Amino acid sequence: MLWSGWGDPAKARELPEQVRRLLHDLLGVRAPAVPAAGLESVRMPPAALEPRLLDALAGLVGDGHVLTTHEARVRHARGKSTPDLLRMRAGDGAGAPDAVVLPGGHDEVARVLRLCAAERIAVVPFGGGTSVVGGLTAARDGFAGVISLDLGRMDRLVEVDAESMTAVFEPGVPAPEAERLLAAHGLTLGHFPQSFEYATLGGFAAARSSGQASAGYGRFDDMVTGLTVATPEGDLDLGRAPKSAAGPDLRQLLLGSEGAFGVITSLRLRVRRAPAEKVYEGWRLPGFAAGTAALRALAQDGPLPTVLRLSDETETMIGLARPDRIGGGEAGCLVIAGYEGASVAARREAAAAVLSSHGGVPLGEEPGQGWAHGRFSAPYLRDSLLAAGATVETLETAGFWADLPRLYDAVRLALLGALGSPLVMCHISHVYETGASLYFTVVTAQEDDPVAQWERAKEAANTAIVEAGGTISHHHGVGRDHRAAYAAEIGPLGVAILRAVKDRVDPRGVLNPGALV
User: Fold this and answer.
1) How far is CA 81 from CA 225, 447, 455, in A?
2) Coiled coil where (predicted)?
């Protein structure tokens, strides 16, 4: 993973000259005056951990599994939000941990947490490093130091139960490797978020992830049937049955907790049989309102495709659903529909009747297959835009169908008010019977302080989401970026309940301090 950007450095590419001209003419984007910093020039505070503590950690996880090199610290300093990347490109590694610790199993994780609690060392769990909500930079005040607890060594498929259709994984398994391991058994998770190529299963659970095929396979929290979690105060082993009426489901308390309540060391996940057939296609709807009505009809009355997405007029015109063809969009609103599994032809025909009844025009398989081919490439485009002098970021929310138009307008107006004349695009990325998510992409010219520029816009958007009745995050999580808005969403009593849980499982507050609560 590129330390100051997304993914494989070999896949990074410069923007075509015509796109650069368009950005300049449309938004006033100019190339940055200062080139991006190199890894070796990133500035970091001196490591604070005493040698005796480093030795103690090495005694728990083994020599060679406690890293203090410049490169290791830089690579674990931040996540992949636009402010994270802007700071790293400027050579600002202020959030770097003092050491990277790689445990080899549950018992080692538990021992590390007990030591860190006793010695007041902050612990930031680290999976694939793909957080986009400031979830990987701990608050340092009051701690003897900070470690990044990298779970990459815990990367095994432990068990496959083909009768119950579950599989047990360690948390550090990267998503592509999980699919490869399951494919050997004719199975799949069906979880394909945009972070798929680099995120880990433990990270999916900790952030309550939702994949692009959630209409067919469900969200990741729907897949989790069991969890093992290590905390400084002991272990939790949750999920004895598929469903239970034995009190509140504590799995739901740990899902989405972002390492603030404990470290996930094992997951039992529901799996599905690998689909025999996959077909993706495109449709043009006359407008966002008509497209939203069509998606609602499919979500409520069926048939529901496995993948279902709707780009608004601006996103369709720009062509953002096809990052490989940016600038080559068309009029109207693009719908991407994908069908996987059994009875594909029948489901596709029935869905076509619904889309046609709302004014949809079929575009054939080429737009759908093109989207599927480039479905994980948008973050590379963001890096190219940052390098060209644009500030570009995404944010997402969700609401009930009746509230969606108001939520859509509120967020757009907030971003326009905060940034002047940005390019604001949106698509519906996930649908449910009762509502849907809205995923916004914003592009504008960088100001002298682009981090402050985006923080201003983010605060305005967060306020608009809360006031319009949406949730502060549908699938990115809370981290530090959404913490204040999350508190407003759940109210003072909700915050007090979470704080009480935190105080019980982590009384010294060493688990990812500053995140979530």
Assistant:
1) 30, 17, 11
2) none
